[in-house]
Amino acid sequence: MTSKFWFLAKQSLNKKIKTKWFALANLLLAVVIIGLLNLDSIIHFFGGDFSSDIQIVLLDKTGNSEDVFRPSLALAEESFGLERKIIVNVSSQSLDELKEDLKESDKIGVVLERDSAHYLKAAVISNQKIDTLSYQTIIQALNTSKTQIAMRDADIAPEELEKIMSNISIDRIILDDDAKSEDEAMSLIMGTVFPTLILPFFMLVVFLVQMIGTEINEEKSTRSMEIIISNVSPKTHFFSKVLASNAFVLIQGILLFLYSGIGILIKMSSNVGSSSDFTGQISSIWDSLSQSGIMNRLPVIIPATLILMILSFIAYSLIAGILASMTVNMEDFQQIQTPIMMICLLGYYLSIMAGMFDGSIFIRVLSYVPLLSCLLTPALLVIGQIGVIDVGISILLLILLIYFMTKYGLKIYKVGILNYSTDKMWKRLWKAARVKE
Fold it and tell me: Which residues are bridge partners to 59 per DSSP?
């Protein structure tokens, strides 16, 4: 029986991996992941350039706004984090001449004029549309220039004007001893880093449910299931599918991280100017992790997350296999797949929004719920809303779910695997659960 189990598991795994579909899908995934990580280099290769300067032609009809506009523009660049350098050239042309010169050009014209009602009015002229970040930078610079000109016209001393326009000095003080002064850094982590890391796990759960369900449904619809069950027990067949499906997602997960690693290495070795900025962003994220105190909790976070993920893969594969045994066609399979996907999607979104439920008992209780805990519990652990005891409860409940699905779900599987009834799928499931062994 052991040899038959390993034979079935191997055959099932080979059916998933040794196919043209698997090779083509992974080739596409590799191209997409590596391409997204190196999108700027690709655009640069085909003629685009993220590092090219933005040329602004300034037509100052006021006669004295240039000295205000330039520093305002530099301040706006810093505020928006604009990577491209803005170069301002002053023009003495007429407005019509400026418009004529801007045709068939990527330069941007800025015209400043006095306005009796609003101190200053401006026109931004370009041959094509301006990207949103560059446009917003120019708009902020114009608004700042207007404010400075208004205060200058009001005879405010230059020293006072500088004080008014300078950034406010803020001392960050948190009175709650339990709160952390690094909450802002934690918000950055939960808003960017964590969703990026859990997305592959979410994708793998989707692959897992689809793979095991589709394979069992295919064997039933082609009636090959009858031949298989006549040679091995339903228990052996069931657990061989679970093992093969989990081995598949493990291999697929390793490949996804491999593609990401290759993409990052290409990004860091790229000669495109933004590669240095990418390295700086990685350093910034690492500093944020250090400042948030999460590095000290990694010895707990990493093992707990891995245990929850492994147990959840097993739980999702058990549920998918049990429910798929009751299907007789693809329509039935779509019915049982939808609620499983909804549960997984709910856990994904709750984990992203975990920071919004600070101190909520409701979200803490949800972190104990099996199938949700694999995504939600690590998120709450990262931001410090739950502790080791809560993680232990989540793991224990997940183990109990796996135990009951193995014990009682196998009974449903034995009944359903050769059940070709035309009754409604959920009705067949209910009847199978009530059958006495």
Answer: 111
